[in-house]
């Protein structure tokens, strides 16, 4: 599921969501498939993962740096994904391991629109 979320293979992601319902599987950095899809800007996969799970805990799941998928989307300026995650419960005031919020990420990565 991580690999297909990272590689934008929507059809395989949809299939795997049917047979492997554990959306909380993490890689060595604590990232879920949602983190990867948000990082890569794959809107359709982000939507599939969130809407298939319908669990606020997925949107708020933190990696080893205490960052949610929102941080990944903000860093790369994927405004549609940022809005989608926010609309589905992502907290904009969440602090990561260094005390930074998504707004800090937007600032240092020059994502003015975000």
TrEMBL record:
Keyword Repeat in the entry? The reply is yes
Which Pfam families does the annotation name?
A: Ank_2
- InterPro entries listed in its UniProt record: Ankyrin_rpt (IPR002110), Ankyrin_rpt-contain_sf (IPR036770)
Q: Where are the ANK repeats?
A: 29-61, 65-97
Per the record's keyword annotation, is Repeat included, yes or no?
A: yes
Question: What keywords would UniProt list here?
Answer: ANK repeat, Repeat
Question: What PANTHER family does the database record attribute to this sequence?
Answer: ANKYRIN REPEAT DOMAIN-CONTAINING PROTEIN 39-RELATED (PTHR24171)
- Name used for this protein in its record: Ankyrin repeats protein
Q: Which organism is it from?
A: Gigaspora rosea
């Amino acid at each position: 599921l991580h690999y297909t979320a990272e590689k934008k293979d929507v059809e395989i992601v949809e299939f795997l969501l049917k047979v492997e319902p554990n959306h909380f599987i993490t890689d060595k950095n604590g990232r879920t498939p949602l983190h990867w899809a948000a990082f890569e800007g794959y809107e359709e996969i982000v939507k599939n993962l969130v809407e298939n799970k319908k669990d606020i805990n997925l949107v708020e799941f933190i990696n080893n740096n205490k960052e949610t998928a929102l941080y990944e989307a903000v860093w790369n300026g994927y405004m549609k994904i940022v809005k989608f995650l926010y609309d589905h419960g992502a907290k904009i005031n969440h602090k990561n391991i260094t005390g930074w919020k998504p707004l800090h990420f937007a600032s240092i990565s020059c994502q003015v629109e975000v």
